[in-house]
Amino acid sequence: MKYTEEHEWLRVDGDLVVVGITEHAAEQLGDVVFVELPEAGTQVSSGDDIVVIESVKAASDIAAPVDGEVVEVNDALADTPGLVNADPLGAAWFVKMKVDDPNQLDGFMSEDEYKDMIA
């Protein structure tokens, strides 16, 4: 897995990238009560807001970490937003993206680098 400074994780799955938020981010948000996801087929650029998360503490936007097309969204989060707190690195993924330029993935942190950043 790779990590962003904005506390997102990326997992390469074949020719797709799965995107979610880290345990650290989920803890900072508190209990998540609502998740709004983009439509599959949406073309996005790195930095575009693609997910809205609302918790009992705050609302946050999640930005696309790479340029590409959202090809699948995790519809389970609409009915069970608490998955973000229960399993942020697994069942609570937000989107799967087809990346325009796989070289963009080279600029993200490793798990050790991310752990050092949040320490």
Q: How would you concisely characterize the structure shown here?
A:
Helix content is 19%, strand content 37%. The chain has 119 residues and is an alpha+beta fold.
Stated plainly, the CATH topology is called: OB fold (Dihydrolipoamide Acetyltransferase, E2P)
What's the CATH class, please? Mainly Beta
Quaternary structure classification? single chain
Spell out the CATH superfamily.
Answer: RNA polymerase II/Efflux pump adaptor protein, barrel-sandwich hybrid domain
Q: Assign an overall shape.
A: globular
Give the strand tally.
Answer: 9
* Terminal residue distance: 18 Å
Largest sheet: 6 strands, antiparallel
Mean pLDDT: 96
Q: Share of helix among residues?
A: 10-25%
What keyword list fits this structure?
119 residues, alpha+beta, 6-stranded antiparallel sheet, 4 helices, 9 strands, globular
What does this 3D model show about the protein?
- The chain has 119 residues and is of the alpha+beta class.
- The chain has a single domain (2-101), classed as RNA polymerase II/Efflux pump adaptor protein, barrel-sandwich hybrid domain (OB fold (Dihydrolipoamide Acetyltransferase, E2P), Beta Barrel), CATH 2.40.50.100.
- Helix content is 19%, strand content 37%.
- The chain is built from 4 helices and 9 strands.
- The strands form 2 sheets. The protein has a 6-stranded antiparallel β-sheet with strand order 1-2-3-9-8-5. Strands 4-6-7 form a 3-stranded antiparallel β-sheet.
- A hairpin with a 4-residue loop joins strand 1 and strand 2.
- The longest helix has 8 residues, at 111-118.
- It is globular, with a radius of gyration of 13 Å.
- The mean pLDDT is 96.
